[in-house]
């Protein structure tokens, strides 16, 4: 029977063997413990796939419509800074930006 294809983030869990740097292994275990290790790595892989797909979409858009004007990039950066610094626009227990700790 042929393997069923699943979209990123879908399908049953399956065991695979991967090699990770010792420092990354330690950092993950400190954050989630041994029982949450697989879920943490799976979520990280899914986020990377999403970023790769977004980058591919951006490149395709630029190929079709040309590069995004610097003025629009600057406006987007300013909007991002505003949202990041406005507590009323942030989720209560969610995103706080990279600087938050």
Look at the structure and give the mean pLDDT: 87
Secondary-structure element order, N to C: HHH
Distance between the termini: 49 Å
Q: In DSSP terms, counting alpha (H) and pi (I) runs of 4 or more, how many helices?
A: 3
Please state the CA-atom Rg, rounded to the nearest Å: 19 Å
How many beta-strand runs? 0
Q: Give the biggest beta sheet.
A: none
Weakly predicted, low-confidence segments: 96-101
Content of β-strand: under 5%
Task: State the secondary-structure class.
Answer: mainly alpha
Shape: extended
> What portion of residues is helical?
55-70%
At a glance:
It is built from three helices and no strands.
Question: What does the secondary structure layout of this molecule look like, with pairings?
Answer:
Layout: H1 22-32, H2 37-65, H3 70-85
Organism: Nonomuraea composti
Protein name: Ribbon-helix-helix protein, CopG family
Can you walk me through this structure?
This is Ribbon-helix-helix protein, CopG family. By secondary structure, this protein is an all-alpha fold. The protein has a domain at 22-89. 55% of the residues lie in helices and 0% in strands. The protein is built from three helices and no strands. The longest helix is centred in the middle third of the chain and has 29 residues, at 37-65. It is extended and about 45 Å long.
């Amino acid at each position: 029977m042929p393997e069923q294809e699943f979209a990123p983030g879908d399908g049953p869990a399956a065991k695979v063997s991967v090699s990770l740097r010792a420092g990354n292994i330690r950092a993950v275990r400190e954050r989630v413990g041994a029982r949450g290790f697989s879920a943490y790595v799976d979520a990280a892989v899914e986020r990377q796939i999403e970023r790769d797909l977004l980058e591919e979409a951006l490149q395709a858009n630029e190929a079709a419509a040309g590069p995004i004007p610097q003025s629009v990039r600057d406006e987007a950066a300013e909007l991002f800074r505003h949202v990041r610094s406005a507590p009323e626009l942030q989720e209560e227990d969610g995103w706080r930006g990279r600087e938050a700790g």
